[in-house]
């Protein structure tokens, strides 16, 4: 983890209160100091510290940078009541990073998995709204008086899809519009990053075709997995069942535009890799669009430029052909799966 999370105690009161400048006081319920807020809640009859109420001081490189409090309802819904970042560390993305780490590593931090989390934010507190939205929270409504906005996070869940899942309306409501300004171009056997202006968006015909395309892959032994927030599809990935020369073809990996940069693509990729190893193949082949971000993602996952190019797997001549060696011999992949 990037941060160190320590249990709050009154010994940290001076540190926590140093975070409470005018802006923090205005946007939190800690106008009498964080320790007063903490003491109030732990003295409530139903509060059980570190069972249904947690307070954490967060450190980066041994420097305290934030304090956070989290409550849990009897229905196992969590509420992030306060998140106060040190004034010196605001505007640097720390709020979003702290939230993402809390949501993704809650078992290590709190001892419990967070599946649903809520937050209440003042309408004028735009920095907090942006931080929570970037961490995966969605606006759900406002208080009748208009003085508070409600946000909720729901942890994406991944499942293997069946033929029954791949109806013609499979992609209804799935937002997809790719735009990129830099892409890799091969010149004289070398890959060169060049500026461009590219865009791809699915039309109705493509959206209707994709479910049948994935269905065909399942019918010939392939695997399709989907990521869902409640009942909403937010990402999917597929590996075809047709094998060539020890390769399986990873044909698709897409994340809904509204859910990108939340780690969903990584989770889909690692899940499909784990399932692909049941197909008794040595490598995955990927015909990737050559955009800078797409290639960077696959390289971060442990992929390399493909050595062999099975003709049946080649998509576009402008794509960048990649491969992933399966198994523990791929050190980067092994480390990603371990974390």
CATH class descriptor name of the largest domain? Alpha Beta
Query: How many individual helices?
Result: 10
- How many structurally independent domains? 2
Q: What is the 3D shape?
A: elongated
The end-to-end span amounts to 9 Å
Mean pLDDT: 93
Strand content bin: 25-35%
Helix fraction, binned, reads 25-40%
* CATH fold description of the largest domain: Aminopeptidase
Tell how many strands the DSSP assignment holds. 16
**CATH architecture name of the largest domain:** 3-Layer(aba) Sandwich
The CATH superfamily title of the largest domain: Gcn5-related N-acetyltransferase (GNAT)
Secondary-structure element order, N to C? EHHHEEEHHEHEEEEEHEEEHEHEEH
Q: Which class best fits the helix and strand makeup?
A: alpha+beta
Q: Are there runs of 5+ residues with pLDDT below 50, and where? A: none
Q: How would a crystallographer describe the biggest sheet?
A: 7 strands, mixed
Structure commentary:
The protein has helices at residues 13-18, 22-27, 34-42, 94-104, 106-109, 126-134, 204-219, 264-276, 292-300, 331-338; strands at 4-7, 53-60, 63-72, 78-85, 116-121, 138-142, 149-154, 157-160, 177-187, 190-201, 223-229, 232-244, 247-255, 283-288, 304-305, 320-325. With 339 residues, it is an alpha+beta fold. The chain folds into 2 domains: 4-154, 3-Layer(aba) Sandwich (Aminopeptidase), CATH 3.40.630; 157-338, Gcn5-related N-acetyltransferase (GNAT) (Aminopeptidase), CATH 3.40.630.30. It has a 7-stranded mixed beta sheet, with helices on both faces. The protein has a 7-stranded mixed beta sheet with strand order 8-11-12-13-14-16-15. It has a two-stranded antiparallel ribbon with strand order 9-10. Strand 9 and strand 10 form a beta hairpin. The longest helix is centred in the middle third of the chain and has 16 residues, at 204-219. The protein starts with a strand and ends with a helix.
């Amino acid at each position: 983890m990037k941060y160190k999370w320590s249990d709050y105690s009154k010994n940290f009161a001076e540190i926590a209160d140093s975070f409470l400048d005018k802006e923090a006081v205005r946007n939190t319920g800690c106008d009498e100091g964080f320790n007063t807020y903490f003491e109030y809640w732990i003295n409530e009859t139903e509060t059980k510290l570190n069972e249904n109420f947690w307070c954490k001081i967060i450190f980066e490189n041994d420097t305290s940078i934030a304090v956070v409090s989290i409550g849990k309802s009897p229905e196992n819904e969590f509420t992030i009541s306060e998140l106060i970042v040190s004034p010196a560390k605001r505007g640097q993305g720390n709020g979003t990073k702290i939230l993402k780490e809390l949501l993704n590593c809650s078992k290590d931090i709190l001892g419990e998995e967070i599946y649903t989390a809520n937050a209440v934010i003042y309408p004028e507190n735009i920095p907090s709204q942006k931080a929570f939205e970037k961490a995966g929270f969605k606006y759900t409504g406002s208080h009748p008086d208009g003085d508070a906005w409600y946000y909720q996070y729901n942890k994406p869940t991944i499942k293997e899809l069946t033929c029954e899942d791949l109806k013609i309306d499979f992609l209804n409501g799935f937002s997809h519009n790719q735009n990129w300004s830099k892409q890799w171009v091969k010149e004289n056997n070398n890959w060169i990053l060049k500026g461009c202006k590219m865009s791809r968006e699915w039309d109705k015909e493509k959206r209707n075709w994709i479910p049948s395309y994935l269905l065909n892959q399942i019918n010939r032994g392939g695997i399709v997995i989907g990521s869902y927030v409640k009942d909403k599809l937010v990402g999917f990935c597929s590996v075809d069942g047709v094998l060539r020369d020890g390769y399986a073809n990873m044909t698709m990996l897409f994340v809904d535009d509204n859910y990108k940069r939340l780690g969903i693509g990584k989770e889909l990729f690692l899940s499909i890799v784990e399932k692909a190893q049941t197909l008794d193949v040595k490598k995955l082949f990927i015909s990737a669009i050559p955009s800078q971000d797409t290639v960077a993602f696959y390289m971060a996952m442990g992929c390399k430029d493909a050595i062999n190019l099975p003709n049946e797997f080649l998509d576009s001549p402008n794509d960048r052909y990649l491969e992933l060696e399966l198994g523990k011999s791929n050190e980067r992949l092994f480390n990603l799966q371990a974390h």
